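Dear Dr. H.,

I hope your travels went smoothly. While you were away I took the liberty of generating a structure for the chain from your last submission, since the lab meeting agenda had it listed for discussion. I wanted you to have the full record in hand beforehand rather than looking at slides cold. The sequence, exactly as received, is reproduced here:
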Amino acid sequence: MISSLKSQNMNYDLTVVIPMYNVIDYVVRSVESLGVWLNNKAVEILIIDDGSTDGSLSVAKNIEKTYDNVIVYHKENGGLSSARNFGYSLANGRYVYFFDLDDALGEGAAQILLNAINGSSDDLIMFGYDEILEDGNINTVTSKDQPKMDEFTLRKDDILTELLGIKQGFIPGYAPTKIFRTEAIKELSFREMYYEDLAFFMDFLRQNASDKYRFINLPLYKYYRRSGSITRQFSETKLMDKMTSLDLMLNAVFEISGNSRIVNEAFKTYFVGYLWIAKLNKDVSSALVSKRVHNALHSNRGKYFELFKGFKNFVKFVYYRTF
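The corresponding predicted structure, in token form, is as follows:
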């Protein structure tokens, strides 16, 4: 299963874990975007081939020959979480970064992030990103409140406020916009499910003792939104996993925050998420999904009417947030 042992028993400032599955068109572009991380003695780059069948492994092997700190591993297909967990189990860096091989780092981002972790003891370093749409338009996601600041500190309630979209929503659950101190996530792993990023991040916030985290207010990551992405293709399993992700989010907010506004917004997000799933299930036609949606919405209906202060506001909220 292991194709190279270049970095065995060595210590690094950063380990980059890169799952790979049938992304042959993007491998070279994405790896080259890692810039100063390539052939850098402070960084190890682990490409985890998750049973690709399109020639991605051959391309990655050629990249491995080119860069001294790139190591390619091959395993049987087990999904994104399996590949990330496998790569993380091999990590030798003080910090670990989970990068998606069909996206890219922005120009100069690798150096900025390397500078950020140099001598740092932060458990979590987050940063903004550019969402690049299929028509070429770019949606830059950073904090607009602090445009003159390259970085600032956020507390857990600040993170939840943005994660739930109460203010600007510049912090997603998305793993590739975050670098974790390895020691801070040593007890964690990605759950074997779709939408695993949010679950992992909520697990981290719930168990991490710190209440101060760094945010670099620059769009350092390039997220390419494609219509063929697995996140936009739905099935019974994906809808069930999305509901599990919503359940985990709500339970984690209960544990993390005593702020009533944040808790109430988490309920709204949970509610709208379930309604969105019900809408998607019209095409999937899963009885299991229908039953779970019904049970979740029925058991909390009193809370929803309380939050929206009456049926009229309730209907308006549902319409404008869901359809």
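Two observations you may find useful: DSSP finds eleven helices and ten strands in the chain. The first strand starts at residue 12 and ends at 20.

With kind regards,
E. W.
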